[in-house]
C-alpha cells in the first residue's frame, strides 16, 4: 500500500502516470520514469512542446467551450449577464472622458473616441496579462487528472478575453456614431494587427503562466507592473501633449504597449498606417515568441510538479 502522505512516493506515482500529449500509453512499463524524462534530448523536448501547441490547435472547439463556460460562470445569476461588461465600460468612458477633456483642455469630440478605443484595448491587454499568471494554477486539477495539452489553458485565457472585448466593442461603435468618427483607409491592417495581438496574448499567457506556477509572487508583481504601465502609456493622454516637452521619445518610442495599441488604435481613429509602430510591435513580439518558446520547451515537463 502506497503512503499518500509521502512526498517522494506521491511524486513517483505522478511520474508513472504523466499527463499531456507525451504521456505514456496504458500498457507502458512505468519503470524509472524520472530518469527517462531527464534524459530526453533538447530535440525531443522541442518535439513534445510543438505537439502540445498543435494539439491545442486541434482542440480549439474545447477552448471555445471552456471560454464560454468561464463567462457564463462569472455572471451566473446576474440580471444583465455579460452586458455588465459593456455597461461598466460605457460608464467609465463617459465619466472619465468628460472630466479629463476639461483637465487636458481637449475637444470632447476628438478626445472621447480616443479615450474609448484606448481603454477598451488596454482592458484586453491588462486582463490577459493578469489572468495569464494563474492560468495553470487555477487548472491544476485538470492538468493532474486529464491528458490534455497544457497550452489549452493559455489559449483559454486569450479566448475568454476576446469574448469580453467583443462586448466592449459596442461602446466603441456607439461613441463613433455619436461623434462621427470613421476608420481610415488603413483599416486593412486591423486583421493582421489583431492576429498579432492574439499570438502575443497566447505567448504571454504561456510564459506568465509557467512563471506564475513556479513562483507564486508573479501575479502581484505583474499586477503592479500593469498598473504603472497604464499611467506611462498614452491611454488617458494623447502623445501629442508631450511633443513640446521633449518627452515623447521616452514614453512613446521605447514603450512596447504604445506600439501594440497604435497598430489598432490609429486606423480605428482615422489615422494612417504607422510603419514605425508596426516595426516596434513586430520586434517586441518576435522577442516574446523566442523567450516563450525557450521557457516552454524546458519548463513544460515540470509543470505538473509545480502545481
Mean pLDDT: 83
Find the structural class using helix and strand composition: mainly alpha
What is the ordering of alpha helices and beta strands? Answer: HHHHHHHHHHHHHH
Give the amount of beta strand, in percent. Answer: under 5%
The parts where pLDDT drops under 50 for at least 5 residues are 1-21, 24-38
* Overall outline: globular
In DSSP terms (H or I, runs of 4 or more residues), the helix count works out at: 14
Question: Over the alpha carbons, how many angstroms does the gyration radius reach?
Answer: 22 Å
Total count of domains: 2
Please bin the fraction of helical residues. Answer: over 70%
N/C terminus separation: 25 Å
Q: What is the number of strand segments? A: 0
Largest sheet: none
Structure commentary:
By secondary structure, the chain is mainly α. It folds into 2 domains: 39 residues, no CATH class; 265 residues, no CATH class. It contains 14 helices and no strands. The two termini are 25 Å apart. The N terminus is likely disordered.
Keywords:
mainly alpha; disordered N terminus; about 70% helix; 14 helices; about 300 residues
